[in-house]
Structure formats: structure tokens, C-alpha cells
Amino acid sequence: MKTSWKQYLVYFLICLLVFGGGGLSVAAQSENDIEKEIDKTNERIEELDEEINELSGELEHTHSEAATLEEAVNQLDSSVQNLSTQVNQTQSSIASAQSRILTLEETIAEIEQDTREGKNIIAQTIRVLQQAGDQTLVEALLSANSLAEAWGKVDQLGQLQLEMSNQLRRLEEDKEVLIFRQDEARAERQELAGLEEQYLDQHAIIASQKEEKDQLLTATNQQASQYKSLIAKKQAQKEAFEAQLRDFEAKLKSSGAVVPEGSSQFVWPISPVIITQQFGGTPFAAQNPQVYGRPFHNGTDFGVPVGTPVGSVAAGTVRATGNTDAFSGCYSYGKWVLVDHNNGLSTLYAHLSRIASSPGQRVAQGERIAYSGNTGYSTGPHLHLSTYIQPDVRVIALGEVKTRTNCAAAQMPVAPLESYLDSMTYLP
């Protein structure tokens, strides 16, 4: 039995109902849902931002060494409080990312369902047209009751074919929206993975700070006099090591490599940016030559609370990581990360609380590689950033510098004095 033109029109109207607005209306609904979910957490995140900024302001002075046991304990307690607030902020960001992912997944499912239904409708319509094709155009014209009816049938057929073409175009548009949403969801999942990793790292740093507090109280027996004795001993060890390091680096030869030119090649490694010690012959370095083994500071210090995320100043590859504190009495940079960049420079991030990268890892500019801390020969929570001429910096065992045998396995970067560069030359 031949299919009537009324049946063609029924299929045509079904197509219009299915595809009217297409994936674009779904996409618009998705945007509204995402905005609603974001609004639920943005206000909380903003409140936590303000609280973190207040705590950071209170901790600005902590780049100076705690003079008493009470100050040292208060410093550790403040770090835990600040980190706990950061954990709450991370939790809120995780919830926001999960909401966006859920909304995107629902949108993707709706578009995929509409696409499947649309394809089925088109396939069914094509089958009807093929069946109608059994009747030739001449037969269709001859079976018409009038010339007007005949031309009407031809016109309806043409309109149906045009709408079929339009529906195919809409399917392609739905496909483009689907791909965009899938990419968006993929990016959100990557962000979520990073946030979840940061959440675990921050918890680990909190546990480390609490452990450090317990160890400090145990080592000093909660006596202020014993704390002063402990600090004096550490300072003496520090000065002896710096003298040995000074003699060692003085013997190193520069490769003569050309220093890369151009400013603003780097981005800030932390936020907010609070510089507490400049590169070179700063007043502090001149007044305290025993700290660096010479009246010269080989990097730039940023006063930030323990646990602040540290990003790579430029794209590159992590050459090495280390922890000089892992060996008793082998104080130096504490936990550190060395990154080689594509512009012929290398950068060192030192006194970290936690390392979040590994040797051989490729990192993007601004990508998190560690968290700031107070390890090694640090006079308070801060990030130390050194910049080197890449061919001249190498990682050595501390046993090459320090006479203590238990330091043989500890490692740290060294370079000729002239191969240390001012990081501020390349920062914004």
C-alpha cells in the first residue's frame, strides 16, 4: 500500500518537534544549571578567601625566626589554622566542580538521546521516501485530480527534502555542542582530580605541622631554655655548613653560557606575592654573612604561610627533588624542587613543606609542583626561589661539601657564584 502525502507531513512535523531548537536549547539549559550550582558555592569560597587573606596578613611577620618556644608553638598553630581554612576552601571548590560535572553529564546524556531519536526519525523518513519512490513522478502527477494538486504534491516533496537537509544540519550542530560539552566535562574532571590531590596534600601538611609541634615540645621538654639551646646548636651547624658550601662553590667554574635575555618570561610562583628578601647584597645578607656564607643572597624569598601552593614559573621538566632534612644535621634547603626550563634557565624552589612533582615530570607554566614551608635552614615560613644558568647548575651529594658522613646521601643543587641570576629580572 502506498504511503500518502499526509503521512509524509506527519513525519515532517515529528522531525520539527524533535529537532526544534535542537542541542542549542539543551546547551542553554545546561548553562543555567551550571550557573545555579556555581552560585551555591561561590559565596562560601569568597568568605573563605577573605579569611585566608586575613590569616596570611597575620602571618606576614613569620618570615622572621621565632625567638622563643612560645612563639615557635604559636607559629605552628597558626599554620595549622590557616591550612584548615584552605582545606575548607578546597572542599567547597571540589563540591562546585562535582556539581558542574554532574550537570554536564546530564546535558551530554540529553543531547545523545536527542541525537539517537533524531537519527531514527530521519532513517524512518528515508525509508518512507524510498517506498514512495516506487511511484514515479509521472504516475503521481497523473493520479492527481487537478493540475494544482499535482504541483502541490511536487512542492510538498521538495519541502520535505529541504527539511530533511535542515534536520541533518541540526544533527551536526548537536554533534558540535556534544563535543564541546564533552571537552568541558573532561577539563572539569582534570580540575577535580587536581583539587582532590591538593586536598590530600593539605591534610598531609597539617599532620606534618602537628607532628613538628609534638617533636618540638618533646625535644625541649617544653622548657624555654632548652629551646634556646636547641636553636643555638642548629645555628652553629648552619654556619659551619655555609662556610663549607662557600668554599666549594668558589671553586666551581662557569660554562660561559649566554644568559637568556628578556623580561616577563616567568609568572609568580605563589599568591599573594610578598617579597621578604631580595636577590644579591641585601641589607640582611650584609648584616648576616654567616647565614649565606657570604654577604650575598642567592635567591628571592617570598613570605607565605606553610602549605601555600607553589607553581612553576615557566614550562619545563623537573630535573630533581630532594630533602636535606631527611638526614640528621644535614640542614640546607630542606625539601626542594629543581626545574629546567626551555629558555636556558633553571629554577629552584626551596624550604618546602611538601613536594607535589617528581623527576622527569613535564610541567606547564604555573602548574603546582610543591607547597611552601619552613624546612631546612629557614628563618620562618617562606618560599626561596633561585634562578640559574641551566648548564651551570648541578645536583651533588652533600657529602662532597659537608664532612659529616651521614650527609653523603643527601643532595642539593650547586652552581658557580656568577651563574646565580636575579629571578626578578624574569618575573612580571
From the structure above, extract its key features.
428 residues; alpha+beta; Glucose Permease (Domain IIA); 2 domains; two-stranded antiparallel ribbon
List the helices and strands and how they pair.
Blueprint: H1 5-19, H2 22-58, H3 69-132, H4 137-142, H5 147-220, H6 224-250, E1 275-277, H7 283-287, H8 289-292, E2 300-302, E3 309-311, E4 316-323, E5 335-341, E6 345-355, E7 362-363, E8 368-372, E9 383-389, E10 394-397, E11 411-414, E12 420-421
Antiparallel strand pairs: 1-2, 2-9, 3-8, 4-5, 4-7, 5-6, 6-8, 6-9, 9-12, 10-11
Helix pairs in contact: 1-3, 1-5, 2-3, 2-5, 3-5
Largest sheet: 10 strands, antiparallel
User: What percentage of the residues does DSSP assign to strands (E)?
Assistant: 5-15%
Distance N to C terminus? 78 Å
> What average pLDDT do the residues reach?
77
Task: Name the overall outline.
Answer: elongated
Which stretches are poorly predicted, pLDDT < 50 over at least 5 residues? 1-27
